[in-house]
Known about the structure:
Helix 2 packs across helix 3. The termini are close together. Helix 1 links the parallel strand 1 (4-9) and strand 2 (32-37). The chain has a single domain, classed as Flavodoxin domain (Rossmann fold). It is of the alpha/beta class. The longest helix has 15 residues, at 14-28. The radius of gyration is 15 Å and the shape is globular. Helices cover 43% and strands 18% of the residues.
Amino acid sequence: MNKNILIISSTSGNNYSLANSFKKKLDYLGNDSSILNLEDYDLPLFKPNEIALEDVIDSLIKKFKSADGYIFCSPEYNGGITPILTNAITWISTRSKNWRDTFNNKSCLIATFSGGPGIRFLTSFRLQCEYIGLVVMPRTISVTSYNAPKDESVIKSLKQLMMHI
């Protein structure tokens, strides 16, 4: 049974390329996947009383809700999570009728293409994912300009994700 994997990229650069490489591998393994680039969404900075374009938010929520699992590809910014990723999750959690249905008990894999190993992003985003109800795969993927991912290791991580969905 094919599962719908949503691959979220926080950037249009290296992490988007990383997302595309995951999509190709998932396609090869016979899985359905799509890429969502957060830069394509015109989301304002979240403020409690901010009014955003409802159709943009609704589109984002629908894509997240319809996914069976996620792969997050995001760099480490200033030792943490990219603002665009936290902003998107905040909009989803505050504008969904029951935002826990979007995340609860769904599995995810966290990956980063950063200037360094991205350990602070991987660690802090894992905590955020667990808090919102996601089941986070124990292995993460860290890519730098000097450290390309090993295909065999990536395939193992993707297969592990698919087993939990």
